[in-house]
Amino acid sequence: MNFRFSWFLVTLFVTPSFTIFAQTRPYAGFVYPAGGQQGTSFAVKAGGQGISPVTGIELTGKGVTARVVENFKRIGPQEITLLKDQLKELKEGTKVPDAVTATLIERVEKRIEEYCNRPASMALADLAFLEISIAADATPGRREIRLVTPTGISNPLAFHVGQLPESTRKPMLTAPFQVLGKEELSLRKRPEEEIERPIKLPSTVNGQIASGEVNRYRFQARKSQRIVISALARDLIPFIADAVPGWFQPVLALYDANGREIAYEDDFRFKPDPVILFEVPADGEYVAEISDAIHRGREDFIYRMTVGELPYLTGVFPLGGTAGATQSVKIEGWNLEGAEILYPAAGCSPGLHAVSVKKGGKFSNPLPYALDSLPELLEVEPNDPTSPPQKVTLPVIVNGHIGKPNDWDVFTFEGKAKQSVAIAVSARRLDSPLDSVIKIAAPDGTLLALNDDYEDLAAGANTHHADSYALLTLPQDGPYKVHLGDTLRSGGSEYGYRLLLTGAQPDFELRVSPSSTTILGKPNTLLTVHVARHDGYSGPIAISLQNPPPGVIFSPVTIAPGKTSVRITLKCEPAAVGKSVDLEFIGTATIGGHPVHRPAVPSEDRM
């Protein structure tokens, strides 16, 4: 999972000691709820490993503040017996406890209530209770939250700032380990009102799914309303510890007042988080239901579900444009009439950005939008195999779509013998459902290359590398043809793509993991720098630390030719004791006789 910060956060502590203890980086397994409404303050429960005590909270963006209320470190049977004895003494010691004693009784009771002798996951057994406040003018959207402890800073988790009224179910207690043949013992007993809740549209609801559990929400809707029911779950926590499979797979179902199922979704196109788009057939009550696909659950099976007649983008075209130019797209989706399209800010550099819309003061979901510096043009139909191919001149990016099932788009360019050419499709990584396949034919019709899927090592949490790529050296002068289609022979207006045709441009991208680290009780720590090589670059890459702060020592290393990673060591001296510093690693290579510098982007290796 990649987190594209411009900084790299490292906490450095040096403890003078003759004995060195192994230290585990704090791990945050969940925060619940994973967001809240603008202008509100609310309680948050966090679980993880090595997070007791939490001494601070790091949140990206402005307008959100947090404080730590209480920490519960995992304890065993002996400690819980002592706590129960203490509670008994406190209650028997006075008939009318004073304020201090009453507070202590309340805390002990809460700790006993939260105790689980054998948790479903030890990686969630440490608990922290927080209070988060969101300013009324805080920018809506996704943030990242980290837990700060005396031994370091945790991995980041998603945290959303919402615009709608929110409701949150009571946080569940630590789930017990399921014993084979006795799985029913892990089921929690809920009061009837926690099984189904009434909500008023539009609304965002927060919940956790326990083993074998279903959460329901009842609401009123009017005929012809275009209701969007969208869930975030895998988006919040892409991979979870000690689970098979290693993620929460939410499913949505919609019922009418008579209990008849009228809609069901277990994903949205290729995305695992489901969305139901529903036009209401008649006035009345409806029930939205969410559960896990195979009925698992525990405290990190967290969701945020939004229900309402809200703007929702299902596609934009084209999927990108020229950096620095005025952008213009056509949008598809629900409840978009009269919506204002929000483009990347003027002056944005080439790279991945986002397009969304705003209607009635409410923002839609964002969709990825690519900016580039190369010439761009639109696909022109007809350009299928039975028609003349569309002529293009390299370098170019063609914006098009596979407009119907079994469609192929064909392009032709003039090539030279021994010319190195790169051909790449950007579609799935830009949220298009297109599963591309490309074929490149020589002037004599010989098939030179065919590619369906190409692994992009810089694609973050994407687990299906459906975009195509080919790098080839042309055998002769003449016109070459590029055929582009969908592997499953599907098509439609939403099957957009960006087809890059250019001379090979050897390059590389860097990732460094983890995205924060701690030096505690020892003089050094190890990190890993990963490289994604592009267009055939296989040479060495020198890794250096830019402007190291006092007390931080780094010896430059080199990623060997053809290798995809290298381990690096950070050392510290007394000057760095107790400080939190930002570090920036740079990779340098000589490509085509010129030095090329690329930053190492902080990232988390989640699986």
Residue runs with pLDDT of under 50 for 5 or more positions:
1-22
* SS elements, strand count: 47
Number of helices: 3
Global shape: globular
Report the β-strand fraction as a percent range: over 45%
Biggest pleated-sheet summary: 8 strands, mixed
Strand order of the largest sheet: 42-44-40-38-47-46-41-43
| End-to-end Cα distance | 9 Å
Helix content: under 10%
Rounded average pLDDT: 90
Structure class = mainly beta
Rg from Cα: 27 Å
Explain this structure to me?
The protein is mostly beta strands. It contains three helices and 47 strands. Helix 1 packs antiparallel against helix 2. The relative contact order is 0.13.
Name the descriptors:
607 residues; 8-stranded mixed beta sheet; 3 helices; disordered N terminus
